[in-house]
Every structure is written in structure tokens, then in C-alpha cells.
Amino acid sequence: xxxxxxxxxxxxxxxxxxxxxxxxxxxxxxxxxxxxxxxxxxxxxxxxxxxxxxxxxxxxxxxxxxxxxxxxxxxxxxxxxxxxxxxxxxxxxxxxxxxxxxxxxxxxxxxxxxxxxxxxxxxxxxxxxxxxxxxxxxxxxxxxxxxxxxxxxxxxxxxxxxxxxxxxxxxxxxxxxxxxxxxxxxxxxxxxxxxxxxxxxxxxxxxxxxxxxxxxxxxxxxxxxxxxxx
Length: 230
Known about the structure:
By secondary structure, the chain is mostly beta strands. The protein is globular, with a radius of gyration of 18 Å. The protein contains 3 helices and 11 strands. It has a 6-stranded antiparallel sheet with strand order 7-6-5-2-1-9, with helices on one face. Strands 4-3-11-10-8 form a 5-stranded antiparallel sheet, covered by helices on one side. Strand 3 and strand 4 form a beta hairpin.
């Protein structure tokens, strides 16, 4: 991860925590980020896009960890293709079976991100932070704050994660290594699993863990066209 990106990413996700449930949509509200332009050359595989886990903290910004929580991280994204929208969705699982999906924030790339061949270029980050919170009545609940950070600015939002009654023990599922994904496919980059037992299993990949999870919530990312869903 480029060192210059770290404080920018952290400032965005900390800000996202202060504007819970808010989505930054209008250009006047966007913070312009100094993310380098995605360079496309003869070696670029235009049939794929990539997602790579990257460090969120270093020695210069470890003091921001308390604002982020233990379950936080960043996924670097690179895309070159015809789809204009980057989308986030949330899948909910029970006993290894996906039960439902809900849409999260999406980001539409601008015309200036398009090349002469009609393909869009995106290089940025998906940043997340999962924490327990307490409402004014003293009720404890869980929330995932997240931000999409690109060259033209950022979008931030949050989703409340309601675990079923009886789910006590929970554990994080993370993308462990860089992956390349076909243009028309999405990928799960983060998740939370839970159980009503005293112990819980976790495998090296999210997909393997989901097969044996009593309950889980996962975050899915993808690039889509108008009126499409991931």
C-alpha cells in the first residue's frame, strides 16, 4: 500500500463513523483524494478486475486504531472495463445457505474515467470498520461502517448488523490474498460469522467457512451496469 494513501483512508473511515448512515452523493460534498490514476498498458488483463487486502495502519498512524476497532481493514481495487458502477451488497447466511441479500452504497464513475474505447478505469479502496455500539436506551448493537474511496472522492455509509437471537460467539472472515475476478463477477471480501455453541470453526477462505457457519453476514463487491445488481 502506498504510504501517502494511509492517512487519507483513515480520515475517511473515521469521518464515516461520525456521519453514520449518511451517503456522500453530491460533488460539492466530496473530498478529493490524491489517488494515482490507474495506468493501463499491454500487460493489463482487461477481462479481469482485482481485489487485494492491504495494511491499514503503520507506525505513523497507530494512534487512530481506537477509532477503527479491532475488525477493520482495507481492500485495494483495480478495474478496467465497460461497467460504470461499483456496488456493495450484503449477503446473510444460515447453516451454510444464503438466505437473502440487501443492497449497500454504489458509486458511479464519471465520464472522465472513460477511455476512447468506452472502458472505465477505477483504482481505489474499500475500507471497513466493524464495531459494537450502544443506542440512547442502552441497547447494544453491531454496525459496519464502510467507505468507497476513488480518484474523484469518496462515498461513506454504515449498515446495522442484527445477529439472530442465540448467536453469541462471533468471528471475522477476511480476504487473505489478492484475487483476480472476471469482469462480470463479484467477490466476497469480508464477513462475520456467529454460532450459538461454545466454539466455532474457521477455514482459510471465506467460502469454506460459510459452508459450515451457523449464521453469517458477508460483504460483496462488484462492477455493474445500470439497473443491474450483484
